[in-house]
Amino acid sequence: MDSKERELLQLIEKNGRLENSTIARLMGISEDETEQMIEKLEKEKVILGYSAIINWTKGTDEGAVTAMIDVKVTPKRGVGFDKVAERIYRFPEVKAVYLMSGVYDLSVSIEGKNMAEVGRFVSEKLSTIDSVISTTTHFILKKYKHDGLVFSENEEDKRIVVSP
């Protein structure tokens, strides 16, 4: 990957809605070059998709629950943790799976309609996988920052008041 591709990736990672003309201008290349570079990176699966970060607590009654689950597993011979992780990430509730260092092997992020639904997922789907030894579930109570964006309730002005 060359430096221009890396620069393009950094731009669209910060704002996936940038138009190709804007990206081209910011990078000092033609719009055609930009389009070709994006197509190449999508084809090579470097760019996997584009998504919006939504603050669901604003203006909605959505009661979705997000949980982070620490999972201790027995790795499979010849494939390590990969096959176990693949089996877990195929469930539609699962939003992310990470191989971790430390006490637990996998960190699994899931979303459910409520805590009971998350509990059913853990007890009926996740815990029943042969390689799973144990799980610890943590419910996200409030998001303060996600993907570099702050979810702030109050935009308090922290400047010092200057008066005559």
TrEMBL record:
Keywords: DNA-binding, Transcription, Transcription regulation. Residues 1-61 form the HTH asnC-type domain. PROSITE patterns: HTH_ASNC_2. InterPro entries: AsnC-type_HTH_dom (IPR000485), Dimeric_a/b-barrel (IPR011008), HTH-Siroheme_Decarb (IPR050684), Tscrpt_reg_AsnC-like (IPR019888), Tscrpt_reg_AsnC/Lrp_C (IPR019887), WH-like_DNA-bd_sf (IPR036388), WH_DNA-bd_sf (IPR036390). Coiled coil: none annotated. SUPFAM superfamilies: Dimeric alpha+beta barrel, Winged helix' DNA-binding domain. The keyword 4Fe-4S does not apply. This is Lrp/AsnC family transcriptional regulator.
